[in-house]
Specification:
Strand content: 35-45%
Strand order of the largest sheet: 6-7-8-3-9-10
Number of helices: 8
Radius of gyration: 24 Å
Structural class: alpha+beta
Largest sheet: 6 strands, mixed
Number of strands: 20
């Protein structure tokens, strides 16, 4: 049985539909990431699970109970917010224990839980300090600890790392992943950062305009995006997407540039996608005019044009190519994704990207 079950959840604000028909099953011990651009409905979905937003239609089940209309305190959940929401006048121990005291838990059990969570998060030495004496990373650990002492069935995290700098975000991602494996509870995690999603999630739920676009493991959504939106959203740098014509086994990017498409499906207008790292610089092939170069240390990102289309090409470090020069590209048919130009949906074509 799923630990959390979202059954056709819908949220409306008057005539505005914020979330439409979300179906999702979350198993115990599974970390699910809701991912998408601002305004896609991911935080609204999380807030419906938390009970901070009423559910307009559909049902929510946690631990086998229908909690659709229950108050947040009755749902057996704990939430970690984007802002740490710590009481500045209380010590860290006081912040972590406050919710348990409000629930009438006895002092001995409170101390046991706080000490255990503090040890797990390596903040035991901070328990007698106040939030103003802590760094951002330390305060985020305290916020996690405050949720951890609740021992809920489900943890809800709403962009918990967005206030941290890049180095701290990377470290906290590692710590959250380790914490998840240790506690074995269901987690629903909201972010707009695909790096967080790809590195943390067991499965990613990609949303757009209130609708779920695809649900799958990080590599599933990377390797087989369900539509052109997912293809362009997942990946850094993003997938190259260009309009093309499929004609009798060849993909025509322009009147002069066609490449084998591995299909004899006749004529069709498509969007062709290929990831920058799948393109290689070659001795022959379509000509690529280099317009910009980003040196990333061990890799080089080239930005330029082929057959009138803007492309990104990611290679191992190259110091020998300059802006303004032209090179040739190899565009392997096996790495090309095809999407219907009208609907954006993925086309299954023999010989295309697996």
């Amino acid at each position: 049985m799923a630990e959390v079950s979202l059954r056709k959840l819908r949220k409306t604000y008057g005539a505005v539909v914020a979330v439409e028909g979300v179906d999702l099953e979350i198993a115990k011990g599974e970390l699910i990431v809701l991912l998408g651009p601002s305004g896609c409905g991911k935080s609204t979905t999380l807030r419906m699970v938390a009970g901070l937003e009423t559910i307009s239609a559909g049902e929510l089940h946690i631990g086998g109970r229908n909690v659709t209309t229950l108050e947040p305190k009755d749902r057996d959940i704990a939430m970690v917010f984007q802002n740490y929401a710590l009481y500045p006048h209380k010590t860290i121990r006081g912040n972590m224990s406050f919710g348990l005291k409000m629930r009438g838990m006895k002092g001995g059990e409170i101390s046991r839980r706080v000490d255990a969570a503090a040890e797990m998060l390596d903040i035991t030495h901070l328990l007698n300090r106040k939030p103003g004496q802590l760094s951002g990373g330390q305060m985020q650990r305290v916020a996690l600890g405050r949720a951890l002492v609740r021992d809920p069935a489900v943890f809800l995290l709403d962009e918990p790392l967005s206030n941290l700098d890049a180095k701290l975000r990377s470290r906290m991602r590692e710590e959250i992943a380790l914490l998840q494996r240790r506690i074995g509870k269901a987690m629903l995690y909201v972010t707009h950062d695909q790096t967080e999603a790809m590195t943390l999630a067991d499965r990613i739920v990609i949303m757009r305009d209130g609708h779920v676009q695809q649900i799958g493991s990080p590599l599933e959504v990377y390797d087989r995006p369900a539509n052109a939106f997912v293809a362009g959203f997942i990946g850094s740098p993003e997938m190259n997407l260009v309009e093309a014509d499929l004609k009798n086994g060849f993909l025509s990017l322009s009147a002069d540039v066609s490449i084998p498409a591995g299909s004899d499906a006749g004529e069709r207008e498509v969007i062709a996608g290929i990831r920058p790292e799948a393109i290689t610089i070659s001795d022959e092939g379509p000509e690529f005019a280099v317009r910009g170069i980003e040196q990333l240390g061990s890799q080089t990102l080239f930005i330029g044009e082929t057959a009138g289309h803007r492309l990104r090409v990611m290679t191992q470090r190259r110091d020998d190519i300059k802006v303004g020069e032209s090179v040739h590209l190899a565009l392997p048919a096996a790495a090309i994704h095809l999407f219907d130009r009208a609907s954006g949906e993925r086309l299954e074509m023999p010989g295309g990207a697996a």
